[in-house]
Structure of tRNA (Uracil(54)-C(5))-methyltransferase:
Amino acid sequence: MQRRENGNSARNNSAKLERKRIQSLRKNYERSVAKNGEPPILYDIHEMIGKDKVDQILTSGTEFDRVSPINEELTVTIDRLSAHGDGLALSPAGDRVIAVPFSLPGETVRVYPYAAERLYLKARLVERLTSSDMRRDDLVNCRYFGTCGGCQYQMIPYEQQLELKKRVVHNAFKNYAKLQEGILPEVLPTMGSPATMAYRTKLTPHFDLPSSIRKGTAGDDIPHVPIGFDNVATGRVMDIEECPIGTPTINAALPQVRASILERIKTYKNGATVLLRDSLPDFDASESVVVTDHKATVHEIVGKTKFSSPAGAFFQNNRSIIPLVIEYIEQQDLFSSDKPQYLVDTYCGSGLFALTLAPHFHEVAGVEISAASIECAKKNAELNGITNATFLAGNAENIFANISYPPEQTTVVIDPPRRGCDDEFIKQLVALRPANIVYDSSA
Ligand SMILES: C[S@@+](CC[C@H](N)C(=O)[O-])C[C@H]1O[C@@H](n2cnc3c(N)ncnc32)[C@H](O)[C@@H]1O
């Protein structure tokens, strides 16, 4: 009798925990949709499972349930890649998508689904049974690839990676702009980066602090604290001692930065994100150094334009491609008219687009939420002898009340943070109807 009661209470407890898990996932999902819009994988799910079935699952409120084959090893064939680079397969019952990192379309793989997300299961790759023609494992250039969550595509030749990225842009137009196939804009080939390794001028490894250190109970028995990036299968931080996509300067500094944190680990109250920024020490220097202080100023030269910016603020991370992006914008027919042309750089950071493009325009104006970046943008204008640029600190949409440029002579550059533009910004942009829009997406 007693044993049966214990069994019932354990079952009740686990049902309660499951309800809590689903409530919390549902809340997080709603919050994320409100902030970032629907996740791209949802559109793959709709195509793979079918709209009717998705509607059925949503109506029954079971979209987060741990359905079969959760926690069972099985063999699946990958149908496609998600926008984030995971291989996607359909579950045997056809009611869930299974997301498998480091797998490619056409590959048959043994997988272990371990977590239930909304309408899909996250799975670990156990074994690859067949290989895609696209796969070139000899191209992988990192000892952590396949474990670290930082890179997804190293086993794919770069030309094919560019094709995949073009597809992501096409799908973004199709799914988010809600345009019919017939009027979808043609997406041109993706411009490759001159450097595909050793290009990142910023790395931000992080660490979590074990509770014994947080609570001060560790004494001399300090556990090892991994400093690096998230392990794709466990979600826990793994040690990263080198990162081949980081610049040589950053990689040279990484061991010392890690060691100095470990030496002081007891002084931290919580985990932290570590900044390593490759910067010129000054504009005459020929070699860069690493800056770790968020409040320090970093220096960069793009073409002939000099930039100082706060180390903790945004600056494009791939030094090799910035001049090509600027050149590409210059090649578009934005300022050849007889009438004076104007440029508005929204989300302007320390003035990258406004200042590199200023010589082509009658006037340029930039807006940016970070006051420290705007201070730098103003100083950068002075530093480069640019006198036709004004900068405003504030929300991007504030710029519309502050400019009086004729819309038909105005180009707007939009380079928002990862989550994109606010609705208010879009509304005002649409109302302005500028002659040209240049959109630079970090997503
Ligand atoms: C992707 S960065 C682009 C910066 C700059 N264009 C560059 O290339 O260096 C996006 C910038 O938008 C800024 N930002 C974020 N939210 C904003 C908002 N609501 N209004 C204006 N700027 C914002 C961030 O501080 C960041 O500097």
Q: What stands out?
A: Residues 313-316, 347-349, 352-353, 367-370, 373, 395-396, 415-417, 442 surround S-adenosylmethionine (CB under 6 Å). The radius of gyration is 25 Å.
